[in-house]
Amino acid sequence: MTENATTERRPQYAVFIYEAVPPEDLPPDVMAGHIGLPEKIAAAGGRVVAGLGFQDPSTTTAVRGDLLTDGPFVETKEALAGIYVLEARDLDHALELARMTPIVSGGVEVRPLVDFQVLP
Amino acid sequence: MLAATVRVTRDLDVAEESVQDAYVSALSAWERDGVPDRPGAWLTTAARNKALNALARRQTLRAKLPLLVLPEELTVPEAIPDDRLRLVFTCCHPALSAEARIGLTLRLVCGVSTADVASAFLVPEATMAARITRAKKKIAAARIPYRVPESDELPARLDSVLTVVHLLATTGHTAPSGDALVRIDLAERALDLARLLHALLPEEAEVAGLVALLLVHRAREGTRTDEAGRLVPLADQDRSAWDRNLIAEADQLVVRALLAGPPGRFTLQAAIAALHAQAPSYAETDWPQIRTLYDALLRVWRTPVVALNRAVAVAMVDGPAAGLAAVEVLEASGELAGYHYLPAAKADFLRRLGRFAEAADAYAAALALTDNAAEQDFLRDRLG
C-alpha cells in the first residue's frame, strides 16, 4: 500500500518568478527569503526539484537564426528573474507553495510540466 | 452519478463517456432482467466499473498514466451531495477563467447541453465547446484537485460558485431555446445546489440571498405562462396563485442576509424579487424602493442587464419617457446587442408613449433575437 503510494509520481510545476527589481538591488531580507525557500517549501510538504536565478535582463543576448541582438526576446517591465521546479500534491498545493516566493514587485506564474522532464 | 464517477477516474472525459456507456448497458440489462430496486445505484456502479475498465485499458497502452486511480479512494463510500459539491468547486476553481467555470459547471454538474450553455452566454456553440474542452484539459494537466476547499479558503471561492448556480437558475427560468418557457429540471437543480451550499455555509449572507432569490422565482413559476404555454408578464400574473410559503421562507432569508452587513448582489436581487412578491398588484408595487435597490445593485454589480432592469423601474417611477432614455443609452453602448429583452423593453416604453410604429419595429427586433417559442408567441401577440 505504502509502496503504491510512493511509486505514483507527484505532479511537478515550473514556477516563473517575475520581478521588476534587478538581482543586485534586492533587499537582503528578500535575498535571504530566496535562499531559504527550498527548506520552507519542504516543511510545507512540497519539494524543490531544481532552481535557477537569472542575471539582470540587460545582460541577455537574443539569437534569432544568424542575428544577434541585445536584450531578451520579450521586453517587459517585470522580467523573468528566475525559475524553479517544485513537486506538489495538486495545483492548490503548488499555488500555496509558490505563494511563499519572496517578491518585491511582480509575481509568480505556475505551469504544470509534461511527464517527460530531464531532471534528477 | 457523473460526480461519483469523476472521483474514481479523476478525468472528466472518461467519466462522461462511462456514464453514457452505463445508460446504454442499462437499456439491454433492464429489459432482460427487469429494472433493479435502486436504478440510480445500479447506474453509478456500472459507470464506475466502466470507468475503471477504461482506465485499465489506457494503463496498458501507456507506460505511464498521468491520471492514476488512487487505490484508497475506491473504498470510500459515496456521499452524492458531497460529491456534487466537490464537482461544483472543481469546475469553479479560480485557476479557470470565469467563462470556463460557468460553462463547465452547467455542462458537467447540471447536464445542460453545450448548445444551451452557449445560448445562455450569447456565444456560438463552437466557442463554448472549445472553452469547455480547454477547461477540462487544464483540470487534468494542472491537477486541479477534486475537493471542497478548506473553510479558510471557502469564502473566496464562493462567488464564482454562486454565479454558476444563479446562471443555472436563469437558464431554467427562461430556457434559451425549445418550446417550454421554463425548464423546471434546471431550476430545481439550481435550487438544490443553492440549498446545499446554504447548509454548508449557513453564515454566508450571499448564499442565503441566492436561496431566497431562487425561492421567489419558484413561488411564481406556475403563473408565468397560461394554459397554452404563453408567457404572462409580471403585471398580468395571478398573484393569488403564488406560493406564499416559499415567499415567506425567502423573506426570512432576505431579512437575515440584509442584517448581516453591506448586501451583495444576490441579497439585493432577492430583496427586489421579495418586494415584487409582496405587492398586492403590479401597480401597487413599491417602485421607488425597487429603483433604490437597483441603484445599490448597480453599484456592486455594474452589468448592462442590471442597468436594463433598472430602466424598467425608472419607467414605473418617472414614466416611459425616462425609461426609454435609459434604454437608449444602453443601446448606444452596444453591450447588449443580441439580447432580446432590450428591444422588448424599448418596444414596451414606445407603446406606452403611443409611438406604435416604432414599437412594432422594436418588437420585431426582439422577436428575431429569441429562440424560445413561448417568448416568440408573446412578442407576436404584442405585434398584433
Automatic annotation (TrEMBL), chain A:
Q: Where is the YCII-related domain?
A: 28-116
One Pfam family from the record = YCII
Q: Which residues form the signal peptide?
A: none
Family that this chain belongs to: Belongs to the YciI family.
This protein is called what?
YciI family protein
Native source species: Cryptosporangium minutisporangium
